[in-house]
């Protein structure tokens, strides 16, 4: 199975939870984007309007390697002269406050799997039946971690107050799906790490220059340099580490509850996720109502089911972390927000189109899956289960 060979293979449409307010001060636009990250869209809009980054927001973050429709809010209307080839836009109304994740009701997907052989098509149909009946564990998938492996997450280093390591992971570790320009920046930083003057002289014009320039003038103020990283990006780093702990907790929970013969280990960027083949009625009922915490230092573990509590403690211990360490110190605008997330994900309206000849892969087939997910859930986890033989 091949996913995302072309942007049209991954189509996502936001189902908004947004009611226009005629007297609101924010202008809401629907953005239709192709092969560009949401954060890059927001940066383009910020520059076009010449406003601070916190004044420009989206209702959610959508995949770069896709065609996506979503809402953004701006403090001013876009000028009539504004143009951009990577996305289209249309005005949909005004809002009293900037949009956030609460303004997404759900997301509708159409995802095409390619390079399929006949047995893989059959496995996808069997997987669809299992998904409709048993759901799938509600893991965060690789894109949540920015293309990095589990040891390449700046959020962990920020929480441990290892600011140089956080900066190194941000500035000097290339990611597989970054642009050639971004990879070049990170290779230069890696080659001359700590020689801030040389890095500054060799870097092309890029957003990282402000951080390097600060380090050139203040080489001992690593925390101050980290403060100059885009706050939206730093928040994503923290959320990524929080998501890793959730995934590790969910893996530990499933290992404790689900018979080993019913589990399938599937690789992703941060390790492996355990997917179930099937669940008996009692276990299905238990998992379908079970939540796992998104941790911060004040999470009340005693309020969770004992088996969840044990799974969380296992995840923390395996990563060398303690609950009291999950607080961001020394940064006014950064918080790790605690929450709960369902252990089980059940796609709505899951259908498979008829398999067709694949024009990109001779002698193979393609098949499109269509379904709707709650906000914050990952369509690629559904596709992993569809592509996994259950027997």
Q: How far is the first residue's CA from the last residue's CA?
A: 18 Å
CATH superfamily of the largest domain: TruD, catalytic domain
CATH topology of the largest domain: Pseudouridine synthase
Coarse shape: globular
The helix tally amounts to 12
The CATH architecture of the largest domain can be named as 2-Layer Sandwich
Largest sheet: 10 strands, mixed
* Quaternary: single chain
Count of structural domains: 3
- Kindly provide the radius of gyration, computed on alpha-carbon positions and rounded to a whole number of angstroms: 22 Å
Task: Assess the beta-strand content as a share of residues.
Answer: 15-25%
Model regions low in confidence, pLDDT < 50 over at least 5 residues: none
Give the C-level CATH assignment of the largest domain: Alpha Beta
Give the tally of β-strands: 16
Helix/strand class: alpha+beta
